[in-house]
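REQUEST FORM: STRUCTURE PREDICTION
Request ID: SP-0412
Submitted by: Lab K.M.
Chain count: 1
Length (residues): 301
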Amino acid sequence: MSVLMMLLAVGVGVGLWALTVWLFPPRPSLEEVLARLDPSPAASAVPAAAPAEQDGWAVRAGRPFVGPLRAAGLPTTALWQDLAALGRSVEAHLAEKATAGLAGLLFPSVVGLAFAAGGRPFPPAVPVALALLLAVLGFLLPDLTVRAEANRQRRAFRHALSAYLSLIQVLLAGGAGVETALTDAATIGTGWPFVVIRRTLRTARETRVSPWAALGRLGADLQISELTELADAVALAGTEGARIRQSLDAKAAALRVRQAHDAEADANAATERMSIPGVLIAIGFIVFVFYPALTQITRSL
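STATUS: Completed
RESULT:
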């Protein structure tokens, strides 16, 4: 019980500290303030085609811990790029990480108290080990989820980019200029990738930045190398008059081949996952058959 009381005391201390941070929030750093005021085209290069969701209870509960997590160097560059690809707020993600970690830390204590109240307490080491394990898993789970969703988002963007390249090629073949082809091709397509491209080109036009420079920065922020290569090829055509129709055709074909390979890999992975339920059923059947015999053997010993 002493260990459980110690865990309860730690939980109360964490709650008081969270309340203090919420009442007296830390001041944002100069870097954060300047990032909010950055008017560059890529600053808004996020797929905001869908309406912004309201903060849930997990975000509200973990918001007091955002400042300390930012001071600890979170998020990493790779995680920030994944969040940018999804159009999610860094503060909301850090708040969810803090809430998940605290939930994993306190859940074994609550379960241990419930069993102790019922007269069947756990050994003290069990709740402590489970609390540490679940806290680490809860803290890392949002990062893994964001990474998987960002990869799916980038794959969808590459699928739309292959169509965008084909549209640009058609417009160039019809005699349109490079900038006109980029803008008109973006207005034809639908979906959030085309929305992001249209917004990037519009912001570049309003801020007097070349469209290929804006697309290149968008590709760097979203970690889509094909978009960066497109920007480089279009930059040669826009500044040096290079012919890029054949280059765009080759890039579109390469993207379609990569999409076919990704689809085949997903199908193979799904096939492998289908074997997991069968293996679990077989293990359960073996346990069901051999458990009575093992019970009789252990009793006879």
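NOTES: The chain has a mean pLDDT of 78.
Reviewed by: T.R.
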